[in-house]
Amino acid sequence: MFSTPVRRASAAVLTASALAAALTGCGALSGGSIAASPDASGALREVKTITYVNPAPFYPAFDDVGRCFEDAAKANGWTPVEVGTSGSAVDNQGAIDLISQAIANGTDALVVFPTIPELFTPVIQQARSAGIYVVAQNAGDPSTGQQTQVGTDAKQLGALIAEGLGKTNPSAKVGILSGSASTTPHVQEIEGFTEDAKKNFPDMSVVASDYTNGDPTKAPELFSNMLTAHPEITALFPIEGTSVAAAITAVKERGLTGKVQVVANDLTADHRAAIEDGTLLGVGEQGWCEAGTKSVQAVKDLSEGKTLPDFIATTSTFYDKSNLPAQ
């Protein structure tokens, strides 16, 4: 995908217990960030190299970010570098280690995904102290030191998905699987979904919810348990893209295709195919390419001394069979 060398740094994947411990008691993620200043000393820094720390290389949407990040960086005459953790689960410590390495390598700017602000605060503040521009994606908190955040308006996305489901199943009984109770974008998306359902589809309700705690391998069992405990479910909503296949499989294995619908996030190639064959009703596309492009533009603005808004939103759209875009 990348025409310039892409550094893929290996990092140990957190064990399930370590990840759960990291998530337990952590503060809520924020949709905003601190007001922008070019760097800790106020002096402008010329950008030659910009680094994107991919939080989950195993998930296609983050590669979309990287592809458009690279194109935008090259358009500015900068050298783009992408690094990412290994494994099939979110590895927060691995991402932090990669940020530290990028700082040591002398990058001029960072695009990062601080999923748990408390864990990322020290390394982001280290970057800012070194005069490195820091743009966060879809997560973060003012205390981390990020200069702006680019990403999804999660409440809007949740509302779009409720609207998409409500068109065909206005009285849906929904089971939701998300990352954790402290993953604020997920919390906000569920809030947007439930608020829209209450307003526009009074017979629609969330009857079950559970969490993977960052481990997508748990999704099959969790969905199976959910369908057993709640036979009234007529729709599943896996918020994490890595859990969508598990939801579709759980429905198929119980012979419920056509009776239990699945809605999700992100128009990946697999999700497009599932929409076309009818096993996935539709998805809320979060504008991942736009996130990569806008993150680079944010760094450019910072390097020119501009003050940025706390949050720069990407465009969200609900896609089903009726409006799938051309490939």
Number of strands: 12
- By DSSP (H or I, 4+ residues per run), the number of helices equals 10
Sheet bearing the most strands, described? 6 strands, parallel
Strand order of the largest sheet: 2-1-3-4-5-11
Strand content: 15-25%
Span of the ends, CA to CA: 17 Å
List the helices and strands and how they pair.
Blueprint: H1 16-23, E1 49-54, H2 60-75, E2 79-84, H3 92-104, E3 109-112, H4 117-129, E4 133-137, E5 148-151, H5 154-168, E6 173-178, H6 184-200, E7 205-211, H7 219-229, E8 235-238, H8 244-253, E9 261-265, H9 269-277, E10 282-285, H10 288-303, E11 311-313, E12 317-320
Parallel strand pairs: 1-2, 1-3, 3-4, 4-5, 5-11, 6-7, 6-8, 8-9, 9-10
Antiparallel strand pairs: 10-12
Helix pairs in contact: 2-10, 3-4, 5-6, 7-8
Overview of this protein structure:
By secondary structure, this protein is of the alpha/beta class. It is built from 10 helices and 12 strands. Strands 2-1-3-4-5-11 form a 6-stranded parallel β-sheet, with helices on both faces. Strands 7-6-8-9-10-12 form a 6-stranded mixed β-sheet, sandwiched between helices. Helix 3 packs parallel to helix 4, helix 5 (154-168) packs across helix 6 and helix 7 (219-229) crosses helix 8 (244-253). It is elongated. It starts with 15 loop residues before the first helix and ends in a 7-residue tail after the last strand.
